[in-house]
Amino acid sequence: MNTAILVTGLASLAFCLTHLGLSSEPIRSNLAGRLGERGFLGLYSLVALVLLAAMIYAYANASHAVYLWPPGPGVRRLPLLIMPIALILVAGGVTAPNPSAVGMAGALDLPEPAQGVLRITRHPVQWGVMLWAAAHILANGDLASLLFFGGFLLTSAIGSRHLDQRMAAIQGERWRRFTAVTSYAPLAAVLTGRQRLSLSELGRPAALGLGAFVVLLLLHPYLFGARPY
Fold it and tell me: Cα–Cα distance between 105 and 35 in angstroms, integer?
């Protein structure tokens, strides 16, 4: 194992732990009380950016010859199937009023707080990241990729569960009403009859997500040094 692989794993672990730690109580309350909400968000973002830069640099310099499984042609094409879905979820999550986003708790009081991709899952951005990370772990099959993308996968998986708990504690009944008509797992609320899909609300996220997919597909060899097709 070369040093860059080790640094990738350590930076990835630190990225996950700081994300979860800084957003947990009472750490978040104490820091926000001393720094103010904007100061806390600035610190949170700075730590995330520094660790993200360390992850990217280490991963770019790591050996990708330490395979955990041999990625066959079919598995290597998996991101081509998964990424459009992941990007649609992310696009919908950042463009729709999302009650779990910073400063958006007022969306809980909307007549229909779950709109667009929130009807699919109340954590669309986190699920988009999880799908992106899982697809690339399977497609690459090497240790460095597992450590790099695994950090994002764990952060989003654990973080979204933690966010549910924090919002329930802060918002109480308002959040419970929202969770009653939404689901953590994609489409679970729809399949159990607690929510319905609205294709008209998915038009914009689909256009943005598929547009981003095409751009990334074309630029992938130049941005990341690997041809995905």
Answer: 21
C-alpha separations of 118 from 12, 140, 146, 207 in Å: 28, 30, 29, 16
Domain check: are 197 and 180 in the same one?
yes
Which residue range forms the structural domain that includes residue 39?
1-63
The number of angstroms, rounded, from the C-alpha of 215 to the middle of its chain's C-alpha atoms is 20
Q: Does 57 reside within a domain?
A: yes
The type of residue at 153 is L
229 within domain boundaries? no
- Looking at the fold, whether 58 and 95 belong to one and the same domain comes out as no
Same domain? 5 vs 112: no
What is the torsional sign of CA 219, 223, 227, 229? negative
CB-CB neighbours of 25 under 10 Å: 11
Residues 98 and 196 in one domain: yes
> Cβ(158)–Cβ(16) under 8 Å?
yes
pLDDT score for 98: 86
Indicate the pTM of the whole model: 0.92
177-221: pLDDT as tens digits = 999 999 999 999 999 999 999 999 999 999 999 999 999 999 988
